[in-house]
């Protein structure tokens, strides 16, 4: 019996080492059949079903400060923890996603590109402030969402958006998401220099030695049922 327990403990510890914290990435949320579900769109009711499945399965959300602190201390992530993120500043992040998150007692991370602030169909300054005041994390997604070759002015893309979001929220902005999930060594260096503590990409594995600036996210497909989402999250932890 003793031997069995030792073997089981070893397996558990290996599993824990391989397991990464699931960080989910959503883009646009649609209502009333405006767009078919795909990688960049999810119907409001489908999103609700996915969140309900997470909640019913015992998942809770943590925020990047906790993730980064645990990584720094080489401590395991809490069981059944995940992070839920939203890219591209769509106004529905405030009007549709935030109330659903609230319903399930989840908190989210909103990566905002500042060029769209107050534009039609995008988050307003007041929305961003409200998200932050409600306990969500407001983070940066550049000024105008460039491709890697399009970072002409590092200040304009990385430093000014951070300062602007800090001014709007009254809170520090520590986190960044690469547009298109795309990065290179030069972009990582400038993201660090701009004062960000960590940066998120999309589906690729984190780069060894640069984990904090290549944090992985799972792009959630709007076609996934709640059960499929759980399945993909389990796979994500083993790949
Ligand atoms: Zn984006």
Automatic annotation (TrEMBL):
The keyword Electron transport does not apply. It comes from the Bacteria. This is Polysaccharide deacetylase family protein. One of its GO terms (cellular component) is extracellular region. Keywords: Signal. One of its GO terms (molecular function) is hydrolase activity, acting on carbon-nitrogen (but not peptide) bonds. Residues 80-239 form the NodB homology domain. One of its GO terms (biological process) is carbohydrate metabolic process. Residues 1-18 form the signal peptide. It is found in: Secreted.
